[in-house]
Fold these 4 entries.
Entry 1:
Amino acid sequence: MTSNQERAKQLMADSRFAFMNGQNREALNLAKEAIQLASKDPDAYQCAANACMSLGDYDNAIDYYKKAVKLDTGNGNRYFNLGYAYASAEKAGEAVKNLAKAEELGCTPENTVQLYNLLGIICFDIGRYNDALVNLSKAEAVIGIDMDIMRRKAIIYGMKNEIRKGLEVCNQMKLIAPSEYVGYQYAFKLLCQAKRLEAAKRELEIAAKYSVPSMDYYMDCVTFELQNYGNDKNRDHMKKALALLVKAMKTLKPSVKEVTETYISSAELWLQLEDADRTIACLNAALNPVSSYNLGFEIVPEDHGEIPLTEYDIEEMIENDRIRIENELGEYGLEELAE
């Protein structure tokens, strides 16, 4: 006959399998059965707590994790899980207390990285930026190079207004992942914060050459035009911003959220240009983004008049012409043509 302990082990295994497959309610029910059969096994409470976390039931998750800790007080991973649950429930004081205990006892490498990451986030949220940087550096020491950690460090340096250090982190991100826009994006934001608009413009130009096109890139180009408008009040910047949004919609395969945000941004620009009809049209398109996009809604109608080419368009045209001529004339054709 199968003992209660063996049956509980099987229930816990089934609970973990259900949890991995996103069947969180089933995982919780199986864990509760296991607890009834093995009330002194911390892993049974762990299974129940994990399911509660995925269900967003942080209070019950905390209760289950507490019971797991009580039954296994020398295990740092138990304290880490409890600290994570407290952090999810926005109880920073209790979270830090348990994470400190987890660090003291030691955790698995994965949990250690998450522990320092979590402490970094908590310190950031309460304005302890130096402590946040220390914890993120500890996480880096365990995991090595990590883009998400570097992104957070760049944000913190921005909050501290330490632009040079922030740019150093951005340069590291660009070296590691030159085709991703994120490194260029945070460098652009830091340079705008420092009012170094020419340097910010160069950052966008470099990103256009090396990174994969993204909505973040086009939105930052729009931001740059708006910053220039704030300086000189030249309405052409608004028109260039509209042209960038049009290009983004044609170049990318935007998500529904991105389509909606683009239509709303377009409405704001048309409002600045004092065109009520286009403002209303863009807002209406934002109410039904999928159908508007599929039906080919035009942010700037063809009959609306000329929208000036942006510097980004001109650079792209020059590059396309260079490639076309190179393809037609061969590797040395450009030199011969120049001669």
Entry 2:
Amino acid sequence: MTAIAVNLDATGALSLADTSSASLGIDYDLYSYLGSDVQLKMQFFGKASTPTKGSQIICRMTWIDTATDDEIYKIQGNLNSDEEDYSSIWNVAGAKEIFKSFELVYGDDMVSAILASDAYNALNGLGRNSVILILDDDQPDTFDADTTYKLLTSLDQRPSDLGLIGLDNLEVYSALYRVMDKLNIQFTVELDPTLDPDVAQSLAESLDAQDHRVQIIWSPNTCRPRDATSLKGRKKACYALGQYLGMKALRNAKTTAQGIPMIADPIAGESFPFTFKAMTARDDVIFDEEMEEALAVAKINVLRRIVYDTGVKFVMSDVLTQYDSDSSALRLVNSSEIATFTTNRVCEIVKRHMLKKMSSFIDDTSKDIEKFLNACYSAGLLVEAEDLDYKPYRFRLVPDDQKPFERARLILARRPNGCTRSVIFDDDVISK
């Protein structure tokens, strides 16, 4: 997020310098850090055979990652100084919402300087002329756990998930764990795909999260990069967290008429295949019964190749959270999601009715909670339970005994839907 100044002098030379006396100056500050090895490609295009004003010239700015040749950002617009011109580069930059600030300096000799520049492309030309500016290394500040915590917990929209790739920095993990605990949301940690199975198991056990909102995934696979252009390009470690969270977002977008997402279906199994380019399993990792059991004991959900009657697919092969229990529903990812979702939504209902008179608060809140939980039951998030008298939920909202005039007490119990991890098959053949 380092402020950058692009200077076009009277001779047409472009540089990264002060713009106070430039023929054309562009001062900008991005919200994002670009890191190292980034270039800024500057180009100008004439809209007339001999431009005489800024509105007849298009300026294009392209930020390129030289390590991968990826285009990071690109904006273009005319150089009209009129703020009412919505096709001007100033308005285009504002609409992109990638800039913290974007200011232009127009000199009297701007047009002549652009025409003299190596970045200028005449009307009906090939459009290949450009000037490359090498940007300085732009790295974020040292990680600050408290700042990260305050930033994530103060967002207007509560995030639905947190994700972390690797456990190289335990300070980052601890900060995100605090955020998870505060916001009561899901936290997915992905282990390095290149780890040996024993090391992955050891890492998961040493983490000792013991929380139903934490799950660990591992993808011991390789694939080609998303933007690979060759069919024979070198394969790399296949990190799965991004696609996993994307699939969760798509699933959550499918809601009932009452706005309840389909979170009873975990992102796992045959219905949710992962589709990385040329994905293959690592040759040195063989999933025998002993390894599968060891990974399940460590509560690691592995993305692996499984043969189904519908074909061969790479899928998340388990749905265990880091909750330390052999019988609780909260050891299952989908049950954990249902628990956090219902808790958070009930808390939002309570918050909406706060500061009403006590009688209205009790009545209005109870009606909305009951309506919401009934919708969850209809959507399959909750199921009937023997301990709840064969009902899917039970709640009680009453004035608190100690402070009956200002405080209420809410007690909520519900039975989240589970997920089938194993089947006992008694196979008999009857002769007569």
Entry 3:
Amino acid sequence: MTLLQAVTQAEPNQDADELAGTVSARLAYLVRRAEGLGDATAASKLAVATLWLDACETASFLGDTRTARRALRQAASALVAAGNPFGTTLRAAFLVERGTGMFVLEDEGAVLRTEGAAQAWAVFNSEGRAQWTEGLARHTFLVNGAERIGRLGWTLDEMLSVTTASPEERHGLFAARLSEQYRAVRNAQRNAYLWRRQLAPVPLFDLELAVLIRHGLGDRWGEVQSRWVAERVADPQEREFMDAYLQAVAALIQSERGNGTNVLVEERLR
């Protein structure tokens, strides 16, 4: 089941075809705009990356895996070219190359701090982790860990908890966050006119959350664990939404051509 199917089944009076048409048209616009925008400067690279990120999220909502994966690759490349560590983080989480795997942090005493939202994502890839570890040895990069990061509004400590907390705690963390996403969608559906035309701001899918889910729930073989959902949510429609969301995250995982599906994950013993 796709996210589109999950949210339209949750509100059967909505016109699913009209919503699908609106979202599909938005996706086509984002792809055309990203393809047509030049990338001569760092600023324009970030603009291109933003368009591809939006396209990836939109395609993930639709269940268009091919476009979502392409957009993710393009977004990661544009971010890396612009010097933004989120690009390397996307690659580490979803674009698995031969001989590498998803990078999951060990518990390092929760002492890592960063210098702003963009750098915060660097701790989720091996290159960034080495940089911050080296910085800590020189007593640099230590800033207030309570800074709210990205669209999720999490602190760095909260972000790192997806890899250092117990499985039970991580499951609860993501159950709560996905419940928030579900409630936001349901609230947006109350105004049918705005919802069908996608004029009301609502998180259809979020790549930042996808990265954290990938690190917090991904197993050694690249699968995203979802068995805990039914244990925590009583509403069957909310369970379907959560399952669809996790399936959309899993669909973004792609390995190097000819590398098979065995994805090794560096992780602490759980």
Entry 4:
Amino acid sequence: MSVARYQAQGPGDIVPGRGFELVNLLKARQGQLTLLELENGATFRAFNSAYGRDMGDEWEHTILN
């Protein structure tokens, strides 16, 4: 992955955070089984994701199912 187009989050629409490319990858895979492995070795299986970003946060938060 290349460097994301980070923008500071203010009020209004969600703008790209540090996880912009990962969010886009997960959105593109909606409905497909996706295996995720975290740095700590934990693994997750997901089919869908939703994301958001709180004002002042650099990273998006993601919900998987």
